[in-house]
Amino acid sequence: MSGADRTPADSADVCVIGAGPAGSLCAHRLAERGHDVVILEAGPRFSFEDRPERMERAIRPGDDDRSVWDMGGERDAYVSTGPQPYPLNRSRVKGVGGTSLHWQGMVMRLHEADFERRSRDGVAADWPLSYDDLRPYYAAAERAFGVAGAADNPFAPPREEPYPLPAFPPSYSDSIFAEACEELEITTHSVGNARNSEPYDGRSACVGYGTCKPVCASGAKYDATVHIRKAEAAGARVIDRAPVQRLETGGKGRVTRAVYATPDGEYSQDARRFVIACGGIETPRLLLLSDSPDHPDGLANSSGLVGRYFTEHCFAGVGGRLDRRTRQKHVGFNTTESHQFYDEEGVNPIKLELLNYAGPSPVEQALSGEEWGDALLDSLRDSYGTHVAVGGLVEQLPRKENRVTLDRTSTDDHGNPVPDVRWSIGERTRESIRRANEIQRAILDELGAAIEWTVGPDNTGPAFHHMGTTRMGTDPESSVVDPELRTHDVENLHIASSSVFVTGGAMNPTLTIAALALKAADHVDRAL
User: How far apart are CA 355 and CA 495, in angstroms?
Assistant: First the structure.
C-alpha cells in the first residue's frame, strides 16, 4: 500500500510479529480486551479484489504456486543443505494473512496420545501440557475459523460441543472408495474443514472454484485476514511491509524494542510485551538474528535449541486409474478420511486422505497442450475423470540434527543471513510411510485400479507444516518456551507458533497453532 504510515506507534502494550493465523488471533483477543496492540508483518497487504487474477495465475501454464502470492527473490532467499532438499518457498506466503492465504484448510485436533508420545510409545518426548489443557482453546479456534465437521469420527479425541457448521457431504469419488474400504474393514468419516459449508461470520458458503490451494477467490475458506480485520476494528494497528530485523534487549533480560525495516527506512517499535508469530522457519531465524553480548548465541537460546528439532509431516500416497468415471477435480479439498491407523502400535501416527483431486486438471491440460479441436477433446476424455488416489500424512519423529540455522554466506534484501533448512527422516518414520503405502495399495487393489504412481519412503516429500524449532517444555536446558508460551530466558517474550510443538502427530497443524495462539494471548493478558 503506497503512502501508508509505517512509523511506530507512540506506545504499545503488545507488539505481535507476524500477521498469519497465530498473530491475528492473538492480536484480536488482546485488542478486544483493551490492550494497545501493534502487528508488524514482513509482507504486503493483498487486495481481496485481486484474488480472481491470482486464481487464474494458479492454473496458467508456466506459473507455479510461488508466483500466485509473489514469493521468491532476494526477500525470500533461503538454502537447504540437509540430506533431503526442502522447497521452502513452495509452502509459505509473506503478507497480511500469512500462509493461510495458501493453505488447503483442513483442520483437526491432535489426539490425546500425541501429547504423551514418550510415555505411551517410548519415543520422542511428551508435551508439558495435555489434550485437556487445550480443549477449551480448540473449541474457541473452531468457532473462530468456522469449522465445518461432524461427530462421525470414532477415532477422534473427546469434544465438548458440536462443530460450528455442518460437514461437507462426501464427494462422488468418496462413494467409490467407500465400497473398497467397507470390504477391507477400514472405517471412513468426514473431514474438519475451515471453509463455510453455509454462510458464516459474514462470509459466503463455498462455491466450488476448486483452487483452494493456492487461492480461494470467494473468501469461503478461512484465512487470517478475517481476524486481522477484527483486530483492527478492536483498535489494533497493522504495519505491513515491515520485516523485523532484530529484537533488542535492555536491563532485566527483557525485550525493549523490535527493529523493523520499511520501504521508507528503519524504525523501532517499543512495547511492554512481544509475541513472535512467524512460523517454524522465521521464528528461530529472528531469534538467531537477535544475538547480542548478553545473548551471544541468539535470543532465548541458552539451551542451544533454537532452530533444533525442525519437524514435518511426511506425505505418502498411491494413485492410479479405474475403468469408470470418478469425477476427479470436482472438489478442491478432501471430504473423507480415515484415522483408523493413527494409534497403531509400532509405527508413527498415519492419517489417510481420500483425495478429490487426483490426476491431471482438464483446464491445465487444455492450456498447456498442443492439440486443438476434436484431437484435444479426445485427449481430455481419455485422461480426465478416471483417476483415483489415496494420500496421507505420516508423523515424523523429531530429530535434533534437523534444524534451521543462518547461512551467513547468503543474504536477503536487507543484508541479513538467510535461513538454512536441514531436513532428513529416520528409519521408524520410513517404516511408518511403508505401512501407509501398504494400506493405500490395498484400497486401490480392492477397487481394481491400475496403480500408476507411489510416493513412499524413498521419494517422500514434506506436507509443508513447519514445526518444532522453539520447542515447549518445563526444563530451560531442553526447551525454549514454557507451557505458557513464554521464553525461559526472556520474561516478556512469548512465541505463538507451530515452532513450539514438541511432536507433530499426523494431523494438519493449523487448528493446534490457533489453540496455542489463543492460550498465549490469555497468558499475555494476565501478565499485562
Answer: 34
Half-sphere exposure of 413 (CA within 13 A, CB side): 14
Look at residue 236 in the predicted model and tell me its pLDDT. Answer: 98
Sheet holding 493-495, edge to edge: 237-239, 37-40, 14-17, 273-276, 493-495
Strands 493-495 and 165-166: unpaired
Which residues of 6-68 form beta strands (DSSP E)?
14-17, 37-40
With a cut of 50, say whether residue 6 has pLDDT above it.
yes
Q: Where are the beta strands (DSSP E) in 396-443?
A: 403-411, 417-422
Burial class of residue 326 in the structure, from the number of CB atoms within 10 Å of its CB (0-12 exposed, 13-18 middle, 19+ buried): buried
Cβ atoms within 10 Å, residue 44: 17
pLDDT of residue 62: 62
Q: How far apart, in Å, are the Cα atoms of 398 and each of 28, 113, 387, 508, 512?
A: 32, 16, 35, 16, 17
pLDDT, residue 405, reads: 98
Q: How far apart are CA 25 and CA 103, in angstroms?
A: 17
Q: How far apart are CA 273 and CA 523, in angstroms?
A: 11
Q: Dmax of the chain from CA atoms?
A: 75
User: How many angstroms separate the Cα of 54 from the Cα of each of 32, 67, 456, 482?
Assistant: 33, 9, 32, 40
- The pLDDT value given to residue 1: 45
Look at the pTM and tell me if it is higher than 0.90: yes
User: Is residue 526 packed enough to be buried (19+ CB in 10 Å), middle (13-18) or exposed (0-12)?
Assistant: exposed
Burial class of residue 15, CB neighbours in 10 A (0-12, 13-18, 19+): buried
252: left (phi over 0), alpha (psi -120 to 50) or beta: left
Q: Convert the pLDDT of each residue in 395-407 to its tens digit.
A: 999 999 999 999 9
For the record, the C-alpha cell of 192 comes out as: 474438519
Measured CA distances, 151 to 136, 159, 189, 292 (Å): 17, 9, 9, 51
**Minimal CA–CA distance to 75: which of 238, 270, 282, 274?**
282
3-state SS of 71-89?
CCCHHHCCECCCCCCCCHH
Q: How far apart are CA 485 and CA 253, in angstroms?
A: 17
CA 311/CA 100 separation, integer angstroms: 19
Cell numbers at 255, concatenated: 525485550
* Angle between helix 21-32 and 225-233 (nearest 10): 20
* The dihedral formed by the CA atoms of 49, 171, 154 and 346, expressed in degrees to the nearest 10: -90
- From first CA to last CA, the distance across the chain in angstroms is 32
